[in-house]
Design goal:
This protein is an alpha/beta fold and 252 residues long. The chain has 10 helices and 7 strands. The chain has a 7-stranded mixed β-sheet with strand order 1-3-2-4-5-6-7, sandwiched between helices. The longest helix is centred in the middle third of the chain and has 17 residues, at 119-135. The model has no long low-confidence stretch (mean pLDDT 97). Bound molecules: D-malate (MLT). D-malate binds at residues 21-22, 87-88, 180, 207.
């Protein structure tokens, strides 16, 4: 069992698990941790090798992150729960839906995708993993924030991303890059998802094309697609109140 660092707010009400993306940690959900209604029990862990959570030895896959979270939710006595995953966190939500569909009351995908990596993307992941191991996360902190935001990010958004990314664990970054490269295609399972689903997509996302978000939402029976018109890839920071409102509506 991996002792994941867990940040919570409130210990009553329906549980909402917030899963961060790459190369980030729970602090990406700060606004939601502060502003979600007190009727919801919010749990925001750092994934293994991210933030303040340790990385166990050996390779890890997206399914391993999901297993860690199922164990965490057992420990927290949250048998059934809502879940929101940002980008890589969404890849983990798909794994949770495969591994424990009966435990998921509702799922939100925030700037995420069902498709796997292309061959070219897999090669880039290997380079990212090797560079992170050799140089640390500085090169990502320098290059990724600008790519992650829309045209006019609110003050502080770029700094928040840069701070979190520059503090990422090199080995954890490498492990996550390799895990994402190895993830399976989740599109064949979309039609079988039976819980309420929310797809939140940034209209100005340069990482996940709008057409992909639309196709993913269309593929999931009854899914609600919400466009964050002023956001790039990090709407929980760029349009925090909208994301908070939509997550509150899902988990109420
Ligand atoms: C993320 O935000 O988690 C990553 O951009 C996802 C990815 O690189 O596929």
């Amino acid at each position: 069992m991996i002792p994941l660092k867990l940040t919570t707010r409130n210990d009553k009400g329906p549980a909402l698990l917030l899963i961060h993306g790459f190369p980030l940690d729970h602090r990406i959900w700060q606004s939601q941790l502060e502003k979600l209604p007190f009727s919801i029990r919010v749990l925001a862990p750092d994934l293994r090798g991210c933030g303040a959570s340790p990385l166990p030895p050996g390779p890890c896959a997206i399914d391993d992150y999901a297993r860690d979270l199922l164990t965490l939710m057992n420990e927290q006595r949250a048998d059934k729960f809502y879940v929101a995953g940002h980008s890589m966190g969404g890849y983990i939500v798909f794994s949770l839906l495969r591994q424990a569909p009966g435990r998921i009351l509702g799922a939100a995908f925030v700037s995420s995708r069902a498709l796997p990596d292309t061959e070219e993307a897999r090669k880039t992941r290997q380079t990212v993993a090797q560079r992170a191991e050799l140089e640390g996360p500085g090169f990502l902190a320098d290059s990724m924030p600008a790519k992650a935001v829309g045209d006019s990010p609110a003050p502080g958004v770029l700094d928040t991303l840069k701070t979190i990314m520059s503090q990422a664990q090199p080995a954890g970054v490498a492990a996550a890059a390799r895990a994402m490269a190895g993830r399976i295609d989740s599109t064949p399972g979309l039609a079988r998802i039976s819980c309420p689903v929310l797809v939140l997509a940034g209209r100005q996302d340069k990482i996940i094309p709008a057409a992909e978000s639309e196709a993913m939402a269309k593929g999931i029976p009854g899914a609600k697609l919400v466009w964050c018109e002023r956001s790039g890839h990090v709407p929980m920071l760029e349009e925090a109140d909208l994301v908070t409102r939509e997550l509150a509506a899902l988990a109420k």
